[in-house]
Design goal:
The complex is a heterodimer of chains A (311) and B (387).
Chain A lengths: L1 E10 L2 E11 L4 E6 L5 H8 L7 E6 L2 E2 L5 H6 L1 E5 L10 H5 L1 H5 L4 H14 L17 H13 L5 E5 L7 H18 L2 E6 L2 H7 L2 E6 L2 E6 L1 H6 L4 H7 L4 H7 L3 H4 L9 E3 L4 H11 L3 E5 L5 E6 H8 L3
Parallel strand pairs in A: 3-8, 3-9, 6-7, 7-8, 11-12
Antiparallel strand pairs in A: 1-2, 1-4, 4-5, 9-10, 12-13
Chain B lengths: L10 H16 L3 E4 L7 E3 L1 H4 L2 H20 L3 H26 L8 E4 L1 H21 L3 H20 L7 H44 L1 H16 L2 H18 L1 H5 L7 H26 L2 H9 L4 H35 L8 H9 L3 H33 L1
Helix pairs in contact in B: 1-3, 1-5, 3-4, 4-5, 6-15, 7-8, 7-11, 7-13, 7-15, 8-11, 9-11, 11-13, 12-13, 13-15, 14-15
The chains are: A alpha/beta (311), B mainly alpha (387).
């Protein structure tokens, strides 16, 4: 649990972050979204004290972060930045081993952890650990950057526009991978982005920032259906908000009992994907299948449309 | 009618070939002097050596010239250039032996302008061929070592002992070792002191941008003072220091001698190292530094593990500039009693004994050249590691 209490940052007469208070649940992904200059990066960097707050405090599991020496605090918190920030003169393995070595882990434990992370991030060709960052593709560099941040098993991971430098195709894959990793390690993630689609795709909760203030901090569906400020509506866009809303729920969550249909969809598919599939195939309903092949119920076009109408 | 195309001429080869032919035709290959100081008379090889070996020598030179003009293969060019150098060495050694009457220690046989021009032309052809081969840093150092050992063995064999420069060496061999040590001490000592001071100053200038313009500007100003003038400027305060504190004088801190030389060279060395440290640190990716800070490296750890290693190639380039510059500048230090190879140079100028001048000048050139090769190789190695 992270509690941010009345956090402000002022440079001279300029207020970059203005009395922000919010709570972040352990094991969740919170996305801070806003335009450039909204103070979202500064807010993130105050959590690991790369920026010292002017007023206010941050509590991690009840402990005030200002009471720990900053560099020791940061070793417990993963940190990923745009453009990865890998050390160009160190190999992939050495990059990943940075924080474990700082923490004085035994050599064998470091090696085992590096190997585990390379496997988890699908970077496990025999020689990969010995490569230098400039020998990797953009997507690989980004994955190594995340692996490095997770090396010392931090409970909290801060990510500052981590996918900003990637092209759209690789970005989508990187976002899916991040969701997998988060489920696997149960890491609490706070991620900063200016991309609302990314926020909706990744965030359990989304905080919208403007001029140093958090306008709304809630689940993505609430941001769509009950925006607290016209800026929130504008940022999330109105043209496809019904489809966005559908994309936030999975077929499994909305399935209802009923007769078996010829058309089948996976329980993990989003309602948006199910609707698209039904429009495409011309069917009125589909049976939702669990991963083990058993039926989770059915979904009708009417039910999908009703769900998207809730706003 | 068909026109046979000539192979393409190599422009550098054409120039070197023309210079070589002109040197052979118009400049004396060796100069004979009845004693050390009198002006010499030019001697042609055919006047005192049997025709067969002399034509063999010309053939070797022609081979090198042909390779310089028409051969594109760098290995072949290198081989021909080296053959030319060896032929040149044998010819000049033979001339020394042939022209010196047995037991006579008064006559001087000096390599003439023709010899030196040919040596320079063949030397350029050799380095050019090596450059075209693009050898890695380790191979370049190895080649330097091979050349040094080969030259050392050639001199140790006594083949050149009748040549005028070696005569000067024979007379001055004790002093030669002492001046060599002194030359190295001045060049490397002032460099070492400068690095110790300049690195922290450079780091400080990187961290505090407000200092940068002032510090770099001041050091720039020092660089513009001519070396002789700087020695002169330093004489007064150091002399006063020696007069005021006898223990300082006892430790060699005086208005003339080693102290002002070291201080002046130290001052000249500061700018390149400080400037390159600032540039090198400035080039380090801000993202890498930000990531390092975000992962909990302390300021010192970031400097030691991230910034410094990444800036090292650029810093080493600065050190290379300083070392080569210092090896040359130390020569002038001899004027104020600082010693070094410059002592031979200025003594030789005073006595109009060109052989003595060369005894000082040639080791300086070789020392500067070797230092440049060694440090270039080191910079290359660092660049490969840092990528």
């Amino acid at each position: 649990m992270i509690n941010i209490e009345g956090l402000s940052k002022r440079y001279g007469s300029t207020t970059v972050v203005d009395a922000v208070s919010m709570s972040i649940a352990s094991g969740s992904i919170t996305v801070i979204v806003g335009t450039s200059g909204s103070g979202k990066s500064t807010l993130l960097r105050m959590i690991n004290r790369l920026v010292e707050p002017t007023t206010g405090r941050v509590l991690i599991d009840g402990a005030d972060t200002s009471l720990t020496p900053a560099h020791l605090l940061r070793r417990r918190i993963g940190y990923v930045i745009q453009g990865h920030g890998l050390f160009p003169h160190r190999t992939v393995a050495e990059n990943i081993a940075t924080v474990p070595r700082l923490l004085g882990w035994e050599r064998s434990r470091v090696a085992a952890r590096v190997e585990e992370l390379l496997r988890v991030f699908q970077l496990e060709s025999a020689s990969f650990g010995r490569k230098f960052p400039h020998q990797l593709s953009g997507g690989e560099q980004q994955r190594v950057g995340v692996a490095r941040a997770l090396a010392a098993e931090p409970a909290l991971l801060l990510m500052d526009e981590p996918f900003g430098a990637l092209d759209p195709v690789i970005r989508g894959k990187a976002q899916d991978d991040l969701l997998d990793i988060q489920r696997r390690f149960g890491t609490t993630i706070v991620l900063v982005t200016h991309d609302m689609d990314e926020a909706f795709r990744l965030g359990d909760c989304v905080a919208v920032m403007k001029q140093g203030r958090v306008l709304q901090h809630d689940r993505p569906g609430v941001l769509l259906t009950r925006p607290a400020d016209p800026f929130v509506t504008r940022l999330s866009g109105t043209a496809d908000r019904a489809l966005k809303l559908l994309s936030l729920t999975t077929a499994g969550e909305l399935a209802e009992p009923g007769p078996t249909e010829k058309r089948t969809v996976a329980a993990a598919a989003s309602l948006r994907e199910v609707l698209s599939d039904l429009i495409w195939s011309g069917a009125d309903a589909a049976t939702v299948l669990n991963p083990d092949g058993s039926s989770a119920g059915r979904l009708t076009v009417a039910r999908l449309l009703a769900h998207g109408r809730q706003g | 009618m068909t026109v046979r195309r000539l192979p393409a001429l190599d422009p550098l080869g054409a120039l070197l070939g023309a210079v070589g032919v002109a040197a052979l035709a118009f400049l004396p290959f060796v100069v004979f002097k009845s004693n050390r100081i009198v002006p010499g008379e030019a001697r042609a090889l055919l006047d005192f050596l049997p025709a067969g070996p002399v034509f063999g020598f010309y053939l070797m030179l022609a081979l090198a010239a042909g390779a310089a003009l028409f051969v594109a293969n760098a290995r072949l060019r290198l081989a021909c250039a080296l053959l030319g150098v060896i032929a040149l060495a044998i010819a000049v050694a033979a001339a020394g032996n042939a022209l010196t009457p047995p037991g006579n220690k008064v006559v001087r046989v000096a390599p003439g302008a023709g010899f030196w021009v040919l040596l320079i032309a063949l030397g350029l052809m050799t380095t050019d061929a090596i450059t075209r081969l693009r050898p890695g840093p380790a191979l370049r150092v190895l080649l330097l070592l091979i050349f040094a050992v080969a030259a050392g063995l050639a001199f140790a064999s006594g083949a050149f002992d009748h040549l005028s420069i070696m005569r000067e060496y024979a007379v001055n061999s004790d002093r030669f070792a002492r001046e060599a040590r002194q030359h190295m001490l001045l060049a490397f000592g002032s460099l070492g002191a400068a690095v110790v001071v300049a690195l922290p100053v450079g780091i400080l200038c990187h961290r505090v941008p407000r200092l940068r313009a002032g510090v770099i500007g001041t050091l720039n100003l020092i660089q513009t003072i001519p070396s002789i003038a700087l020695f002169g400027i330093l004489m007064a305060p150091l002399g006063a220091l020696a007069a005021a504190f006898p223990w300082a004088a006892e430790h060699g801190i005086r208005g003339i001698g080693t102290a002002p030389a070291v201080v002046a060279l130290f001052l000249y060395s500061l700018l390149p190292v400080v400037a390159n440290t600032v540039v090198g640190l400035g080039r380090v990716s801000p993202a890498a530094v930000d990531a390092a800070r975000g992962m909990g490296l302390t300021t010192w750890q970031i400097l030691a593990h991230i910034e410094f290693p990444l800036a090292l190639p650029v810093i080493l380039t600065g050190i290379r500039i300083v070392l080569v510059q210092n090896i040359g500048l130390v020569t002038v230090a001899a004027l104020i009693g600082g010693g070094g190879f410059g002592a031979f140079v200025f003594q030789g100028i005073g006595q109009t004994a060109m052989d003595l001048v060369l005894l000082g000048a040639i080791p300086i050139v070789m020392l500067a050249f070797s230092s440049a090769v060694l440090l270039d190789a080191l910079v290359d190695l660092m660049n490969r590691a840092a990528q």
